Amino acid sequence: MPGLNDSFFFLAFVDDGSGQIVPASQPTQAPSEVDAIRFAKELEPTSIGVVAWSRRAEPAIGEIGPPVVIYTAGKVGDFD
Predict the structure, then answer these.
(1) How does strand 21-23 pair with strand 5-15?
(2) Dmax over Cα atoms in the chain, in whole Å?
(3) Domain-by-domain residue ranges, the chain?
(4) Which tens digits make up the pLDDT trace of 52-79?
(5) This protein's superkingdom (predicted)?
(6) DSSP string of 59-74?
């Protein structure tokens, strides 16, 4: 649709040592849905969980849609 942009992100999670699942870093933007999933899968062996998601935005009016999970594995905490 004209004026709409899709953005793709991925994030890994770790155990903080007290049993809490926390992000290992800040979310990272990927160039495509395929890349977001691929990067998330690459982080699986060293993480307790991973998630990849997309967001649809309409910059002309400043609206950003909710996250839409496109891939998840393991234990995932808050990412939005």
Answers:
(1) antiparallel
(2) 47
(3) 5-74
(4) 999 998 877 878 889 999 999 999 998 8
(5) Bacteria
(6) GGGTEEPPPEEEEEEE
